[in-house]
Amino acid sequence: TRSINTAFKLTGRLLCLSNEIQFIKRRIQTMFAVIGIVITVQLVSLSQAQESSVGKPCTSSFDCGVTGCCLKSPQSGGSFCAPMIKEHQKCYVSNDRYLMSFGHTVFNKSCPCDFNLRCDGTLTQPLTFEHIDEGTCRDVLELLKEWNNPHYIKKDVSGSCSSGKDCSADECCVSAIQPIGRKKRLAIGRGACQKLGETGDSCLVSVTTAADMNWECPCVSGLTCKGQGLFEVPLGERGKLSFFFFV
After folding, report:
1. Burial class (CB in 10 A: 0-12, 13-18, 19+), 231
2. Which pTM does this prediction carry?
């Protein structure tokens, strides 16, 4: 009889414990559901706030939130908020370069690619601030997989070269792959022949010779790259090409 009573007591306790566990599970599920609803509402509110900023006047991209940029209007001369460029849409390589540089918060032509995207250009024009290179917004991880493949050669490269010796006297060999982040090494052994820099062009102070493969072409004879105190990671200081006696 005593054993039966003990068994009944244990069974009762187990049932109570089971009920308590079920109650706690329901409370946890309810709590997570509430948290999910709050997060969803916050995200929708943020998205609506970002969308509402599109078209509004701005003085810098900080006025446009995380999904937009401040775009200069050639018609009015002012600036307004516009959305970032999405994957597979047309973009400008120089806009990515502006984004990596300090202080450039108002863009020309169009906004940069959205987060986790990079403008993959065709390198049909020099990659300078004045000569905009068109491309397509692509996923950064996808690009890195291609660039880390030693057998990968970038498409649409005219005047293929491996050093300045493969180009004419007024050209240099520009790498088909541009660096991302702090990695400065040339990723592949091929590039494209492009014209040397002229007066007023943007330039890299560190690039002084056309003999090797470069990230950008140096200047023609008689010009020099005057630094402007603007540093682009990982390429170094940027400047403008001018005559020696104007430096």
Report:
1. middle
2. 0.40
